[in-house]
Design a protein that fits this description.
The structure is a single chain. This protein is α/β, with parallel strands linked by helices and 89 residues long. The chain is built from 5 helices and 3 strands. The protein has a 3-stranded parallel β-sheet with strand order 2-1-3, with helices on both faces. The chain is globular and about 40 Å long.
Length: 89
């Protein structure tokens, strides 16, 4: 990673999660219908069977991720903070 290169945090997140997905097949990504904005679309293109678009349902996404974790998966949930705070409570 080039620290002098200035890119959006979400772009760095999308690239890194895809890189980690190549190293660990237990990583899954759940997104709240924002894959292009959160850049999880990078992961989705590489690992479509481990990507879950949960729609506009953050509370369900978090619960589903918790269930996946109990089964040995490593879920990453992605949405905008305002939606996670407002809808997951």
């Amino acid at each position: 990673m080039n620290l002098d290169l200035k890119i959006a945090t979400r772009e760095s997140y999308g690239e890194k999660i895809a890189e980690l997905g190549g190293k660990n097949d237990k990583i899954v990504v759940l997104d709240a219908d924002l894959a292009e904005a959160t850049k999880t679309s990078v992961f989705k293109k590489k690992f479509p069977n481990r990507f879950f678009d949960m729609g506009i349902s953050e509370q369900d996404m978090v619960s589903t991720a918790a269930g996946m974790a109990t089964c040995g998966l490593m879920p990453y949930v992605s949405t905008f903070a305002i939606f996670a705070c407002r809808k997951s409570i």
